[in-house]
Give the backbone structure.
Amino acid sequence: MRIVRIFDTTLRDGEQSPGASMNVEEKLQVARQLVKLGVDIIEAGFPIASVGDFEAVRMIASEIKGATIAGLARTKFDDIDRAAEAIKPAESGRIHTFIATSDIHLQHKLRMSREAVLETAVSAVQRARQHTDDVEFSAEDATRSDQDFLARITEAVIKAGAGTVNIPDTVGYTVPEEFEELIKHLMNRVPNIDKAVISVHCHNDLGLAVANSLAAVLGGAGQVECTINGIGERAGNASMEEIVMAMKTRPKFFGADVRIKTQEIYKTSRLVSKITGIVVQPNKAIVGANAFAHEAGIHQDGFLKERSTYEIMKPEDVGIPQSKLVLGKHSGRHAFKMRLHDLGYELGEADLNNAFEKFKHLADQKKYIFDEDVETIVSQEVSKVPEVYALLGLSVSSGTYVKPSATVRMSSHEQPIERTDSGDGPVDAVYRAIAAITGTKSSLLKFDVKGITGGTDALGEVVVTLEESGRPVRGQGADTDIIVASAKAYINALNKLEIRKLK
Ligand code: KIV
Ligand code: ZN
């Protein structure tokens, strides 16, 4: 059976989800897990976009073996050279260069003629080929481009040395039948198409990204670009787990296979959700909390008699663990480390020691420790940033008889400061005190609080999104005391803003 390559863009397009930006260590954790999952290509970032992006791509290229590492570049030579430098250490590296091909983009964004775009694309591919043999070209907004022009530019970039030509549905506009036809049209019309792999990259604005990607596979696409949990720009990208499980569940229909180890899917989904702070909706196919839960009596009855009556995949096929109870206060460092490994985290000695200490502390407060608790502890270790501000302590007074007030003690630039404030509720009072201590100009965009596991002793996790100078930043905090968790999340986000100012 022919193999369709999986090109994962969680670390590039996925990271373009509002508030989902990841630091280098977070990206490395995800990249390591993507290799275990068996993806063929990891698009690690857009090196010219920022120093942080460059460093992340370079680190991933240096450290990650077993997958091709791609860096994105516009057709500008500076972009291409920067991407080349970033992917240089990779065992196998790819430059992915793109320019828009639709008349809408040509007229309003690029202000270029079709001929100029074609020439620019060819020169970009030639320039990229001076750095590596593995070059991918993307015709941005391909689905709204003139089909003859698309065929012409595809032929030209293949001739210039592109081994992969990507046909993105940049704005999520196409529908499955039309997209399958477009891919077939290119397969039939482009004379040198046998020298390249046709790739697709679908956005989910109409909720059709997965359906369109699968239709393209039927049309002959040999590579699919997608993200874990479908995260990405606007409504997101095609969700990898859905594409993979559709192909695995209906192999004869698609006549194609993927190299993905499906048992790693759930773990990867959890890891990406924890690290980006983007929660997976409960009814999400494949990885949602309810994806394998049978609620209706008739369904339960049928399922108990014969699983296949209501189940087309088994939870174990995607690696959903049978038992979620993990560790307790007597568990040792080795068991903790093994559990982290099973959950997809690989920590260095120092981070492991810190995480283990936090685990022991939690185990003293809470009888049962679940996978979700461990993930919360460890994702904080992975996401930690140098601390300009730190919480030293707090106390609150609140309830129905008093006006909520809070006293917060923090260190700010290594100086201890204390401040008391009042507010509409205890969190509001704490946040006012922190804002006064730090003098922050940021505004709070989002505040989410959730219990990690059941029970009143559960670890509470708070995720906040702040905005300063038009760019959002996300902070996380967890504690068995929800007010403390809220303070930690706010301070974590403020520290990230401070780091950003230094860059
Ligand atoms: O959506 C898009 O067109 C892209 C390209 C850069 C591939 O993300
Ligand atoms: Zn995209």
User: Anything to note?
Assistant: The chain has a mean pLDDT of 93. Residues 13, 98, 138, 140, 166, 168, 170, 201, 203 surround 3-methyl-2-oxobutanoic acid (ligand 1) (CB under 6 Å). The chain has three domains: 2-276, 293-382, 389-502.
